Amino acid sequence: MPFYVKQGQIPMQRHTVFRKPDNTLYAEELVSTHGFSSLYSLVYHCQPPTLVKQIREPYDVAPKIARDKHLKHTSLKGFQIQAKDDYLQSRTPVLVNQDLHISLAAPRHSMDDYFYKNSQADEIVFIHEGKGKLKTGYGSIPFRYGDYLVIPRGTIYQMEFEGTANRLFIVESFSPVRTPKRYRNEFGQLMEHAPFFERDIRAPQDLVTFDLLGDFEVKIKKQGMIYPYVYGSHPFDFIGWDGYHFPWALPIHDFMPITGKLNQPPPVHQTFETDNFVLCSFCPRMYDYHPHSIPAP
């Protein structure tokens, strides 16, 4: 997101010595989706983020592509998907191509004994049912029904659910997820005609630093495989961070649909954009109110 956020403790100047109370050094890391050419944040770790103790046997989670080609109409009854205990095992791909994967999930349990990182794709998680907390090194984001969670690639996270009835709609985007360009001015600020604004967006809060050594399993997804890494330090060991790159939430209840006397084209419903696709939210709204309007089907 193109606005600045600061959490926790950071040094006065970037790329300078930043010491702990015991005079040892914090580790500085620059995180981004497009290297030095896009939005980024500087993260300060209690331990070097390179402490990897073991890499366990990877396993395949690539979607199984249907080989029979047809033009039949298809109905996807997403709420009939089978619930499973584990968050990652519950993610079922239903529509995929080279630009994105769309999955449905109905996890019963929180991610208590492992962490997850998608190294290739930004993730948009829409909460159809359930509530809980997205936990990251940047802080936590409480979520509930109707929330979009936008998680940039490379972000290590855990999903903590408050109950067992959870329904998720998940989009993995292989290009960065952004707010629509036509709703932003030249400085990146959302403009007055946009259907949502920065004050609707929830950035991570309540940063808690876990300065712990031990064995911490991080399941890393890349090219259709899960690589179970064992980190030697807790992934949420951020003492502080600042910048423009972080996970965030947008409640669909705060989305303000654009209306008109006559039928409005689908782009007015756009919520997110990427290099190769857009995501729209068709919300309840005042319908076409011209006396001779042709109603949309």
| Alpha carbon gap, first and last residue | 34 Å
Shape: globular
Strand runs, count? 20
What Rg, in angstroms, do the CA atoms define?
21 Å
Strand content: 35-45%
> How much helix is in the residues?
under 10%
**How would you spell out the order of helices and strands?**
EEEEEHEEEEEEEEEEEEEEE
Walk me through the topology:
Layout: E1 5-8, E2 27-32, E3 40-45, E4 52-55, E5 59-60, H1 87-90, E6 92-96, E7 100-105, E8 115-118, E9 122-129, E10 132-136, E11 139-143, E12 147-151, E13 156-161, E14 167-173, E15 213-222, E16 225-233, E17 238-243, E18 248-251, E19 270-273, E20 278-280
Parallel strand pairs: 8-15
Antiparallel strand pairs: 1-17, 2-3, 3-17, 4-16, 5-16, 6-7, 7-14, 8-13, 9-12, 9-14, 10-11, 10-13, 12-18, 15-16, 19-20
Descriptive terms for the model:
single chain; 297 residues; mainly beta; 8-stranded mixed sheet; 6-stranded antiparallel sheet; globular
